[in-house]
Amino acid sequence: MDIRAVILNEMNTVAAENNRRLAPLDNATTLVESGLDSLCFAILIARLEDATGIDPLSSGAVGRYPTTLGELIALYESALV
User: Fold this and answer.
1) In sequence order, which ranges of the chain are alpha helices (DSSP H)?
2) pTM score, two decimals?
3) Which residue from 40, 41, 37, 39 is spatially nearest to 65, judged by alpha carbons?
4) Which residues contact 57 (CB under 8 A, 6 or more apart)?
5) Which of the residues 26, 63, 72, 76 has the least number of beta carbons within 10 Å of its own beta carbon?
6) How far apart are alpha carbons 3 and 9 in whole angstroms?
């Protein structure tokens, strides 16, 4: 599974559905500056759980929450291993 593609696709879908404009996205893009608000992130995480079958953010194993898109992708990639 290409988790990067899944995350980017879901981010674009959530942004469109909520009339949000995404910033240019790369690994260094901070999640706060991505263009999504907190409600959009809640929707995103729920959809990612549906798509991947995991929610690494609720497992309690996360030392600190991701702050960049690259960290979010890495978190999901490591959880899928």
Assistant:
1) 3-17, 38-52, 69-80
2) 0.90
3) 41
4) 45, 65, 75
5) 63
6) 10
Residue 62 has pLDDT above 70, yes or no: no
Task: Give 79's pLDDT tier (boundaries 50, 70, 90).
Answer: confident
Instruction: With H, G, I as helix, E, B as strand and everything else as coil, classify residue 33.
Output: coil
* DSSP codes joined into one string, 15-32: HHHTT--PPPP-TT-BST
Contact 72, 56 (CB under 8 A): no
pLDDT band at 65 (very low <50, low <70, confident <90, very high): confident
Structure-token pair, residue 45: 């995480």
Q: What structural domains and CATH numbers belong to the chain? A: 3-80 (1.10.1200)
